[in-house]
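Appendix B, record 7
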Amino acid sequence: LMQKEKSAASSDSKKSVSQEQSIVDQYSDDLITIKHDVLSDKNTPKTISNPPSHEYPEGNIPLKVDPDNLHKFWHSQPIILSTNFEQSTLNSSITQDTPNIRLEPLTLSPSFEWSDVDLTSVANLKELYHLLSENYVEDDDHMFRFAYSPEFLIWALQPPGWSSLYHCGVRVKSSSKLVAFISAVPALISIKGIEMRMVEINFLCVHEKLRNKRVAPVLIREITRRVNLSGIFQAVFTSGAKLPNRPVACCRYWHRSLNPKKLIEVEFSYLTRNMTLQRALKLYKLPENPITPGLRKFKISDSKQVCDGLNLYLSKFEIHPRFNERDITHWFTPQDRIIYSYVIQPMPSGPITDMISFYSIPSSVIRHPKHKELHTAYLFYYFNTKTSFSNLLYDALILANSNKFDVFNALDIMDNKSALENLKFGMG
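C-alpha cells (predicted):
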C-alpha cells in the first residue's frame, strides 16, 4: 500500500490507463477558471495578516503595497505581505467575518467538476492515494516523493470533527478521474491567549499535466468557501516554497541518520571528506533499548493525563493548538507505520511525567536499481516534566531505529533545536 503498484498489466488495463492519461492531456490546456465577481475577501479564510489594498473594512489598518512585486493571487488575499510588514500589537482578524458567503461552488471549465472525496469509500481512498503518490511533494532533484499510505491518509484527514466537505477534489467529467485535491481539518488554535476555531489546510495536489494552469488558486478559494459555510473564517497552512506573504513562523528540517549505508546509496546523504562508511556506521550507532526507566507505549487510558500535560507544555508558545481527550486518543494511539507514541510513567500506578511521539511518512525512491522506499520518521508532539528533552528525543531515536526507520526528521521549532546538534542531527 505504501508504494505504487508495479505489477504487469494486461493489454486491456494498459489501454485503460492510456485512455485516462490522454483525457488529462486533452484538457491540460482547458484552463480551470473562475468568475472574477466571486474573488472577494469575504470568501477567503483569514490568517494573521493585512487586508488587500483595494478595500479596508472598518477597523482595519491599510498598509502600502507595490502591486508590481506581488503574486496576483496572494495580493487578493487578507495576508501580511512580506514586502510591507509593520509590527503591530493587534491580535485580531484582518477582515471581519461575514454571512455573505457564496452558496454555489466556484465555476470550473465545462471539462471538470467538483467532487467530495469520500474517504470511507475504498475506491475513493485508492484514487486519492494514487493521485498523491504520483503527483505530490517531490524533491528538487526528482529523486524522492512522499508516498502516503491509505491508512495514513485516514489518520491525517479524519480527526474528530472532520467533514467530507473539507475533502475537496476536481475530476475530469468524461472519465471521473481525480486530478486535483485539497483538504482541511478542524483545529482549535490559541494565538497569544485567544482561542479560535480554525482549519489546517493540507494535501494541496494538482496532477502534473495541469500544473501552471491556475488550478491551485481555484482549489484554495473553493476550500475557503466550504470552510466559511461551516462558520470558520481562519486557516493555517505551511509551504515549502517562498510565498509573497510574511509567515507567522519559519523553520528548517534537521535530519538524523539511522541507516547511513542506505541513505548514502540512495544519495539522500553523502560521506564528507575523511569520513568512511565504517566510521559513519559507528558514529550513528544507537543502543538497542531506550535509556529512560518507565518508558512504554501510549494507551487510550492515558488520554486525560497526556491531554493535560501536553496542553500545559504548549501554553508557553504564542501560537499553539489546544487538544481535548478525543483529539489525543485519535492523534496518539499507536498504529504501525503511521504513529508511534510513548509515555514515561516512573511508577506503575503513578502519574505520567513525559510523552514523545513521531509519525511515519515513507518516500518513494525514484529510479533506483536497489531501493524503492525510504522509511522516514518525523518528530510529532511531546512534553517533559522530569526527563530532559535531549534524553527524551534520544529514546525516540532508539525506538525509531528499532522499528527499522532509515532517517529521523525534526523541525527547529518548540524546544527542538536545543538537542538537535548534540544528537547528531544535520541541518537540511
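Remarks on this record: Residues 1-70 have pLDDT under 50 and may be disordered. The two ends are 28 Å apart (CA to CA).
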